[in-house]
Amino acid sequence: MKTNYKEIEKIVLIIIFIFAIFIRFLNLGTLPLSDLEAKIAVQSSQLLSGSDSYVNSDTLLTNLIAGLMYIFGNSEWVVRFFSALAGALFIFTPLLFRSYFNKSTLLLISLWIAIDPGILALSRQINSSLLVVFFGILFFFSYIKQKPIWMGIFGGVLLLCGVSFWFGFVPILCILIYFRITKWGRKDLEFENKLFNDRNQIRKFFYSLVVSIIIFGTFSLFFPKQLSGMAQGFVDYLQGWKLNSGVSSWEVIRAMLVYDFPIFIFGILGLIISKRILTKKERLIGVWLVLNFVHLLVYPSRQIDDSIWIIFSLILYGSLFMNHFGKLEESESKLVLLISGIGFIVLGFLTLISINLLTNSTVTSQSPISKTILIVAGIVLVLFAIFLIGWSLSWRIAGKSILYIVILYFGIYTLSAGWNAAGLRLPYENEMWYLGSKPVNEDLVVATLEDYSDWNFGHKYVASIQVAGLNNPALKWALRNFENVEYIDNFSKSSRPDMIITKSDQTVELEESYKGQDFEWSAKPNWDLLISSEWTNWILSRRIPASMKEKDPIILWIRNDLFPGYISN
């Protein structure tokens, strides 16, 4: 019976998509929003209520979330829906380029997109970076196919993605300027640009661009104020060259190395070793990669989500490398898979032993150095066994076996890191791939407010709450369902709110008496203070000592007469 490779490819792609949907939507609404996420969510809520609010540059995402809120409410699941959906559909974008890349390479790219920790993390957070990459690929494909209407639609959508669009566009602009100067594109690319030589096509492009901006930027003029967000994105990008985001280039690189080092290894190998097998347009990806990396290093207002451009470039090169050097001849496939399977099982047992030795605090009879020597010795024995196979049988089979072992091992590492980056493992706050620190006790603070309001007024959300001196988007989002919330800078002596939330170093001096309880609002690991043993423990268990965290406590004050059994003097 002849193998139907097309059917196999379809089945594999369906499995990848089902997994992508599963891991992106699993417990999507259980994690609290960080400050950067909540800023967009609060803006969407204010936009829907018609209240005056600051226009942010993430116009597209703000409008889409507001529309979804109108239908389904303001839960965490709702506000993260479009990011998760874009992350799942992202895996199909490589298949658009079947005419330019090998089908096996495209399937590998789709698989890595489905499990990559950085892409997974962004798929489960409110951000425009992932949307820019997704719609940017669709725009580029429309350009290749010379479809002016689709180019206009996707171009309008991209302009509404704010700073994220301009950050991704600048390196591409540099390449386009180089094309213009050298006329490189006409000679060496497989398509020729005829679009802008036809006035009718140009009109189609600009008409669809304007319609796209009006529809998605203002919801057909329903949110006219949002149209200014498009210009605000460009302004914010320019201002980003003067303002420091507080995220160092080392923090971004460290997060990529910790979560994506398999992608780095395969990507760099693909960039260096595979140079002789790449076409000129594929080598152009390397130029784009370097420009993105330099841009990330020099831009002061960088955020960790900006690294998605580098990760995506490395995925392309890594997939090209694995597809080329991982091909098996039918005569050697069974032997290579057998050797790879045995080697992988042995390394799997070594990994389990390593985790037990390095994380089990009850094992005190061995020093850390002796534990490391035992682990390294086991790995060396596996490599030596494969070396003997190469010496006695075939170096090609031995090399392929090692490559398959590494691919399987790195694939599982990437899947595990992706599971952690997605916030599906506790403690979720001990991850690097978050856009700002996440609240750790939001549910406890909200539950306390609800309980005291319900006890005293018969409804969870009617108690009056004052938030003093805290301009915290995550806190605003947490209090979104309460009907009487006031944000103030200074107290009025005559005020008597039911409950007050302040900073940890602030006291309440009012005519009424209040009792306060501190809550740990957010806690972010201080990565620079971790020593090697703590790094090892974090990589294997995600545990970090409490003393190594930067904590941001708040105090919840409740008026004395609201406590059960209170007797006034």
Précis, in short:
With 569 residues, the chain is of the alpha/beta class.
List the main descriptive attributes of the protein structure presented here.
22 helices, 5 strands, globular, 569 residues, alpha/beta
Number of strands: 5
Shape: globular
Strand content: 5-15%
Radius of gyration: 27 Å
Total tally of structural domains: 3
The CA-CA distance between the termini, in Å, is 92 Å
Strand line-up in the sheet with most strands: 2-1-3-5-4
Question: If you average the pLDDT, what whole number results?
Answer: 82
What structural category characterises the helix and strand content? alpha/beta
N-to-C series of helices and strands: HHHHHHHHHHHHHHHHHHHHEHEEEHE
What profile does the largest beta sheet have? 5 strands, mixed
Helix content: 55-70%
Uncertain parts: 361-366
Total helical segments: 22
Textual characterization of the structure:
By secondary structure, the chain is an alpha/beta fold. It has three domains: 5-240, no CATH class; 330-429, no CATH class; 442-562, no CATH class. Helix content is 60%, strand content 7%. It is built from 22 helices and five strands. The protein has helices at 5-25, 35-49, 59-72, 76-79, 81-89, 103-115, 117-123, 129-144, 148-159, 163-182, 184-188, 199-218, 228-239, 249-272, 280-298, 308-325, 330-359, 368-392, 395-421, 442-457, 473-478, 532-541, and strands spanning 464-468, 484-488, 499-503, 514-525, 549-559. Strands 2-1-3-5-4 form a five-stranded mixed sheet, covered by helices on one side. Helix 21 links the parallel strand 1 (464-468) and strand 2 (484-488). Helix 5 runs antiparallel to helix 7 and helix 14 (249-272) packs parallel to helix 16 (308-325). The protein is globular and about 90 Å long. The protein starts with a helix and ends in a 10-residue tail after the last strand.
